[in-house]
């Protein structure tokens, strides 16, 4: 609209519009004082609020005030005047996951997996506090930046405090990502979030959601159908990824993966996700391996080193400092130097045994999985 300007807020300069919804518009903004901090401000017009939206807004503020997590957008403050309520949020320069996917058509499985691990980390944090998001979709998943994107779960307007046994009837969320039990007006519980995770993962690896439709009527028919969801044959995905998709996208919530099964699934593998702790875990295991080596326990040392590698590779992915990353890659870190020494100490006899096994044509138990990721560092 010509001549239209963003709302005025005393301590901030509101600039470009980042997005808008039914009763709120989000702007990029700068704090006037101190270091001119960049934030995102969600401006909620009081005139547009009805009873339900007021309750949703109060719940969103209540939840975000009490939680802090690296993969959940931070609520820094909230203010109000006679016309608006302002939620001052962490700014995410990378936009949302929907744009990220559409710009690339599909995401490689390894990229989708990293994002899924980060989303699972946020959901585990919420699940432990009996909080359900109830509106999971790519548009509500923000990225910290485009060069080194870290996922940030946002928009808790429909979120509720729900234990796994709580059941609701109210229709919430976006139809394209909404669980069948919600669309069909049946009782639902926290497992609706797991269905939404399955739809998001499907869209990430196949480039479109499973129920892409030209109209809401067509969409509703597809969701209400009893036909099992078939996964496309292309692109090729790992068995773990396909298994997770099939188990998340079960129309019957009783057959759907539970939260505990989701967090423990091999494709999610939260234990080995890239993170701040990865290098520490790896170094600790290498220290134990060296001790076992000195004690003459070769089998235990080899096992510990193999486990250490499973943390070194995520540490390399997580590290953003170029010099530290290069130190890890070139094995200048003390822990990796020790690991390398131990690796080749036991690698040489292994190669000799394999060579003898080939010569005698006798089968030898392969340990290639233990060493398969070594060159990645």
Short description:
With 377 residues, the chain is α+β, with helices and mostly antiparallel strands. It has 3 domains: 12-90, Phosphorylase Kinase, domain 1 (2-Layer Sandwich); 97-272, Transferase(Phosphotransferase) domain 1 (Transferase(Phosphotransferase), domain 1, Orthogonal Bundle); 278-376, Methane Monooxygenase Hydroxylase, Chain G, domain 1, CATH 1.20.58. The chain has 13 helices and 9 strands.
Could you explain how this protein is built, in words?
With 377 residues, the chain is an alpha+beta fold. It folds into 3 domains: 12-90, Phosphorylase Kinase, domain 1, CATH 3.30.200; 97-272, Transferase(Phosphotransferase), domain 1 (Orthogonal Bundle), CATH 1.10.510; 278-376, Phosphotransferase system, lactose/cellobiose-type IIA subunit (Methane Monooxygenase Hydroxylase, Chain G, domain 1). 44% of the residues lie in helices and 13% in strands. The chain is built from 13 helices and 9 strands. It has helices at 51-66, 97-104, 109-128, 180-183, 192-206, 216-224, 239-248, 259-264, 278-294, 298-318, 322-329, 334-360, 368-371; strands at 12-20, 24-31, 38-45, 75-80, 84-90, 131-132, 141-143, 151-153, 160-161. The strands form 3 sheets. It has a 5-stranded antiparallel β-sheet with strand order 1-2-3-5-4, covered by helices on one side. Helix 5 crosses helix 7 (239-248), helix 9 runs antiparallel to helix 10 and helix 10 crosses helix 12 (334-360). The longest helix has 27 residues, at 334-360.
């Amino acid at each position: 609209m010509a001549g239209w300007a963003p709302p005025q807020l005393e301590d901030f300069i509101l600039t470009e519009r980042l997005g808008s919804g039914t009763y709120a518009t989000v702007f990029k903004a700068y704090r006037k004082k101190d270091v001119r901090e960049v934030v995102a401000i969600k401006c909620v017009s009081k005139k547009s609020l009805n009873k339900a939206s007021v309750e949703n807004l109060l719940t969103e503020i209540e939840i975000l005030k009490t939680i802090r997590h690296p993969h959940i957008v931070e609520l820094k403050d909230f203010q109000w005047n006679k016309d608006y309520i302002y939620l001052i949020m962490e700014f995410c320069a990378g936009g949302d996951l929907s744009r990220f996917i559409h710009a690339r058509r599909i995401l490689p499985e390894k990229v989708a997996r990293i994002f899924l691990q980060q989303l699972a980390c946020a959901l585990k944090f919420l699940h432990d506090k009996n909080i359900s998001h109830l509106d999971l979709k790519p548009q509500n998943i923000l990225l910290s930046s485009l060069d080194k994107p870290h996922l940030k779960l946002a928009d808790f307007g429909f979120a509720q405090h729900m234990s796994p046994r709580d059941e609701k009837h109210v229709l919430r969320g976006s139809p394209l990502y909404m669980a069948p039990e919600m669309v069909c007006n049946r009782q639902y519980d926290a497992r609706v979030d797991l269905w939404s995770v399955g739809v998001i993962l499907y869209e990430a690896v196949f480039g479109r959601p499973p129920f892409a439709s030209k109209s809401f009527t067509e969409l509703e028919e597809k969701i209400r159908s009893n036909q099992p969801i078939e996964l496309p044959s292309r692109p090729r995905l790992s068995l773990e990824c396909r298994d997770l998709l099939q188990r998340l996208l079960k129309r019957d919530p009783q057959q759907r993966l539970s939260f505990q099964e989701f967090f423990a699934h091999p494709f999610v593998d939260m234990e080995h996700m890239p993170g701040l702790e990865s290098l520490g875990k790896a170094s600790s295991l290498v220290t134990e391996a060296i001790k076992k080596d000195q004690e003459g326990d070769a089998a235990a040392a080899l096992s510990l080193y193999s486990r250490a590698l499973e943390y070194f590779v995520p540490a390399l992915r997580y590290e953003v400092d170029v010099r530290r990353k290069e130190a890890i890659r070139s094995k200048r870190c003390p822990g990796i130097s020790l690991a390398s020494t131990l690796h080749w100490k036991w690698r040489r006899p292994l190669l000799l045994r394999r060579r003898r096994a080939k010569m005698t044509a006798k089968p030898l138990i392969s340990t290639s999985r233990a060493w398969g990721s070594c060159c990645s560092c």
